[in-house]
């Protein structure tokens, strides 16, 4: 069996394992704060959301396991939490790391590798009110908290118990990826869509480029697949490709400096921070990775800050602003294309300004082309059930986008 076939076999086995896990998992009542990475140290909404949901007066634990600078990143996260109201006496950096940071001469962080299995260390935080995972490489977190055979460490067992009892678990970047039962470890959107069989993840450099790669996450979020750094790193395509591989029908793309806060007891979600959260629904979608139409029938929604929605079906519970449908501000035709010569819009602004708040069109196409002439087209369609809301917040137009249709096609750039 070649490597790629082995990876595909692993994906199928992992989907089956995930189904078993989801059936046997104890229903949790706690809170998740899933941050998309690059969270500013002074982001009051994201860190404040985590602090607000601390359960009890026990320790607040920072976990730097993903980082290549564990001691320093752990301390930095602790300082941010202290800035937003956590008593410094409650803060603990749990010493868990894979690599030594040569910049910290007084400590060898690689000696922390086995600490998730140290019962004495785990007992020290058994009443923890919350846990915060720093960014880095998400595969380090899973490697350090599970054995090679999949056995869960006492540390990971404690996290599950505390979440079940109402504690909050948060994390940024890598700390967001691990929330899913299966997680994305690397790859870029263009490769994921044009070379759609998954590959192996070998190094952190592959987080940004190459074949889509998947691995087992920690499964704190019972349903859905998370991707982070979403809009800035153009990860829409890789999330679309990853969904059928993992067996999930809901994808959640979290922007940088932004968090998706999930109440596991009620199933309600809230967006905080400066960006947006994208929700993909593929329950009625079809996929054909060897054809021209790669994906069709996807439903896409974009939720900006302070929006609340139901995680299971995306139903809007609270939003800011006024409906755009039938009251469009713009009326202009839109050039179909993409790349550096086109405006550098966020997905939220593009679908708002040029589609749902624009009477001049009900269809939008963005195209990416590589040097070999392969073209990927994202087609966004305003449907009868689509909804848009406009608001002016913090000096900028913000849009809530609900139920836009989406297809993905692959062609050659010189084809008419």
From TrEMBL:
InterPro entries linked: Class_I_gatase-like (IPR029062), Peptidase_S51 (IPR005320), Peptidase_S51_cyanophycinase (IPR011811)
Q: What is this protein called?
A: Cyanophycinase
Keyword Ribonucleoprotein present in the record's keywords: the answer is no
PANTHER family linked to this entry: CYANOPHYCINASE
The UniProt entry, under CDD domains, shows: GAT1_cyanophycinase (cd03145)
The UniProt family comment states: Belongs to the peptidase S51 family.
**Source organism:** Parahalioglobus pacificus
Q: Name one Pfam family in it.
A: Peptidase_S51
The positions making up the signal sequence are 1-28
Q: What keywords does the record list, in alphabetical order?
A: Hydrolase, Protease, Serine protease, Signal
Q: Catalytic activity annotated for this protein?
A: [L-4-(L-arginin-2-N-yl)aspartate](n) + H2O = [L-4-(L-arginin-2-N-yl)aspartate](n-1) + L-4-(L-arginin-2-N-yl)aspartate
Q: State if Nuclease is listed as a keyword.
A: no
Its biological purpose is as follows:
Exopeptidase that catalyzes the hydrolytic cleavage of multi-L-arginyl-poly-L-aspartic acid (cyanophycin; a water-insoluble reserve polymer) into aspartate-arginine dipeptides.
In the record, biological process GO terms are: proteolysis
